[in-house]
Amino acid sequence: MLTNPLQFDSLPELLTGVLSGLVEIGVIVLIIAFVWVGFSFVRAQGKPAELEKAKAAFLWTVIGGAILLGAQGIATLVEATVTGL
């Protein structure tokens, strides 16, 4: 008899596990991005062009974080809806 090498018993559990792992990695990348943006603001030292680049990087970092965390929420909502059918 074959044994299941994964800790998941169904496809939705597998997808939730994969997404959870990606979110954990994404949060680490997001923290590094915020630190990098902070250094960009410090390096700008009042230079308008550099300051605009830092502002844009901050905006995109926030958008990326919202997408990352929103994906987890949407996946949980879809899973709950599908399993409730």
Describe the structure.
- The protein is mainly alpha-helical.
- The protein has one domain (23-84).
- The chain has two helices and no strands.
- The longest helix is centred in the C-terminal third of the chain and has 37 residues, at 48-84.
The largest β sheet comes out as: none
- Radius of gyration, taken over Cα atoms and rounded to an integer in Å: 19 Å
Helix content: over 70%
Decide which structural class fits the backbone. Answer: mainly alpha
The amount of beta strand, in percent, is: under 5%
* Low-confidence blocks of residues: none
Shape summary: elongated
Helical segment count: 2
Secondary-structure element pattern, one letter each: HH
Question: How far apart are the first and last residues' alpha carbons, in Å?
Answer: 32 Å
- How many individual domains? 1
Mean pLDDT: 90
Number of strands: 0
What is the fold's blueprint, element by element?
Blueprint: H1 11-44, H2 48-84
Quick summary of this structure?
This protein has 85 residues and is mainly α. Helix content is 84%, strand content 0%.
Provide tags for this entry.
85 residues, elongated
